[in-house]
Amino acid sequence: MSEFNENEILTHIKDDKLETAEIDKLLALNKKDINIALARCQNLNDTQVATLIKNGVYMVISNLIDFQNLSEENKTNLIEKMQKMPKLYSELLTKFGSKQ
């Protein structure tokens, strides 16, 4: 992927199916809006999901629950992350519990 500005990157994430290497490069940027879009619009592998769980803000976590097929390990890691701040994630914990 060549150099893009952030708006172009977000459009590319939304409109195109990205290759694993492209997604990995974008995850390495660790930009909040890019991570939110990746969690919502791309089919991520287990390693990519794990990276987003580790670095993700609330909307990333919400999008992972809503739009990704999570492995058992990633489900466990997601629950552990949310349980560290139950007031912040109470709504997502309830939603995640009802989806299982």
Task: Give the helices and strands, then pairings.
Blueprint: H1 6-15, H2 20-29, H3 32-41, H4 46-55, H5 58-67, H6 72-84, H7 86-99
Helix pairs in contact: 1-3, 3-5, 4-6, 5-7, 6-7
Please explain how this structure is put together.
Helix 5 packs parallel to helix 7. The chain has helices spanning 6-15, 20-29, 32-41, 46-55, 58-67, 72-84, 86-99. It contains 7 helices and no strands. The chain is mainly alpha-helical. The chain is globular, with a radius of gyration of 13 Å.
Short summary of the structure?
By secondary structure, the protein is mostly helical. The protein has helices at residues 6-15, 20-29, 32-41, 46-55, 58-67, 72-84, 86-99. The radius of gyration is 13 Å and the shape is globular.
Average pLDDT reading? 93
Taking pLDDT < 50 over at least 5 consecutive residues as the criterion, the unreliable ranges are none
- Number of E-state strands: 0
Structural Rg: 13 Å
Which structural class is indicated by helix and strand composition? mainly alpha
Q: What form results from the Cα inertia axes?
A: globular
Give the ordered list of helices and strands: HHHHHHH
The largest sheet is: none
